[in-house]
Design brief:
alpha/beta, Alpha-D-Glucose-1,6-Bisphosphate, Chain A, domain 3, 7-stranded mixed beta sheet
């Protein structure tokens, strides 16, 4: 009897997903084994006879072959598979909820370079990450001789998805004089954005909607302003009101205003939080978010919690504390009030337009943050085998200097002071430390920057940023 058994390259087993370089750390055989053992895990958790798994893929060149093997592996585990086709990740999430699936897998390399790919997974609409991924690898190492043939069907959910996400603009009247530029970056959002703009009452221009895994125009990562050059040019040329940009799989958004400024992810989250009518539920900001964002929302009587970075951590915490809204500096934004609580950049764009429709003044809002003295998200190269020990060493130094009430160690080191705040944390997706520094005056900012620079120097690391 055939035994399915496998060892994965350790580097692809990330905190939030499985991700690697095609034919270097990630292979088609991995896709088969992921499908097979993920299917077995879903079957173990399912009390019904038929275990239903929803799958989808992004537009990367390697995705079709990975999908073929993933389907084969899922089938051998005996699952019933619903193939949604080529979509942004939010449609996979939508399909999982809409179809009440036992499991869901999106084949995607997200915002990584074109030679990367990977798998984002859910079990019964809950994130499958961290220890779940490690347990899958342990199962694969132990092996299994189950050999079945599950059924495969195809389903197109575009119409149902669009119907759901357009609800906030169902009575739109005040957008007709607006002009919007949409940049899909040749990622997986192209087809669905072309359908959505036809339903909007305003003037729209869509850039790079052809799905092309070579990403010939620019890399699909809206948090990096180098990727927004063409979007800003078009906003300026057409005197547009806004520009929206999406990452490769459509779960992160970047928004440019008519002054050609990229609205930082934490500030965008704060603006969107105003659409949450019920204030008794806490709003979650990730640990990279500015002190000033928290203060703004607290001034509006929202309860705000600073929590771990990472879409899986955020989604789990939302369910634990019954939060209806959350957002990250990176552009992952989660609506759980009239939506499902997952990160959907397309839906976030619609909710943004709904606030504009209701005459929320973006320029007046941004004025509150005008005198910020802060860094963007700074990445400092640091090897995987060193980065976490660096954080532990720095924790000891921080604890010696500051009272515990100023320190937050849920995800790296965050120190909140009267003069500002700073963050040093280990990235869960890259060989890097992440740093942010924010002072309430220029002088305080410079002093905090010097302090962080000295802390990093004590660990033989340097910060490549000029304030």
């Amino acid at each position: 009897m055939k035994v399915y058994k496998h060892n994965f390259h350790a580097s692809i087993l990330r905190e939030y997903d499985i991700r690697g370089i095609i034919k270097e750390t990630l292979y088609e055989k991995d896709a088969f084994m992921i499908g097979y053992f993920f299917g077995l895990i879903c079957k173990e958790k399912n009390l019904n006879d038929k275990t239903k798994i929803v799958i989808s893929m992004d537009g990367r060149l390697s995705s079709p072959n990975l999908k073929k093997q993933l389907l084969f592996g899922l089938s051998k585990s005996g699952c019933h598979i619903i193939d949604l086709g080529l979509n942004p990740t939010p449609i996979l999430y939508f399909g999982s909820h809409h179809l009440n699936a036992d499991g869901a897998i999106q084949i995607t390399g997200s915002h990584n370079p074109k030679d990367y790919n990977g798998f984002k997974m859910m079990v019964k609409n809950e994130p499958f990450f961290g220890k779940d991924i490690q347990n899958l690898a342990i199962k694969a190492k132990s092996g299994s001789n189950i050999n079945m043939n599950g059924a495969i069907e195809s389903l197109d959910l575009d119409e149902k998805y669009i119907e759901q996400i357009m609800m906030p603009l169902s009575n739109s009247k005040n957008l007709k004089d607006k002009k919007i530029i949409w940049d899909c970056g040749n990622g997986a959002t192209g087809n669905i954005i072309n359908k959505i703009v036809k339903l909007l009452p305003c003037e729209n221009t869509v850039l790079y909607s052809e799905i092309d895994g070579n990403f010939p125009n620019h890399h699909p990562d809206p948090s990096n302003e180098n990727n927004l050059v063409k979007l800003k040019q078009e906003v300026k040329r057409q005197n547009a009101d806004f520009g929206f940009a999406f990452d490769g799989d459509g779960d992160r958004v970047g928004i440019v205003n008519n002054k050609l400024e990229l609205i930082a992810g934490d500030i965008l989250t704060t603006f969107l939080a105003q659409s949450i009518a019920e204030k008794k539920y806490p709003i979650i900001l990730d640990v990279k978010s500015s002190q000033k964002c928290k203060q703004f929302l607290e001034n509006l009587d929202y309860d705000v919690l600073i929590w771990k970075t990472g879409h899986s951590h955020i989604k789990n915490k939302m369910k634990q504390i019954n939060s209806k809204f959350a957002g990250e500096m990176s552009g992952h934004i989660f609506f759980g009030d009239t939506y499902y609580g997952y990160d959907d950049a397309i839906y976030s764009s619609i909710r943004f337009l709904a606030l504009i429709e209701e005459n929320y003044k973006l320029d007046e809002f941004l004025n509150y943050f005008e005198n910020n003295f802060s860094t963007p998200e700074i990445k400092i190269k640091c090897s995987d085998d060193k980065k976490f020990s660096v954080i532990e060493n720095l924790k000891l130094k921080i604890q010696d200097k500051y009272a515990i009430k100023y320190c937050n160690f849920i995800d790296g080191i965050r120190v909140d002071l009267n003069v500002g705040w700073f963050l040093i944390r280990a990235s869960n997706t890259e060989n890097a430390l992440i740093v942010r520094i924010d002072g309430n005056t220029e002088e305080n900012f410079v002093n905090l920057f010097k302090e962080v620079k000295a802390l990093l120097k004590s660990e033989q690391l340097s910060i490549n940023y000029n304030p």
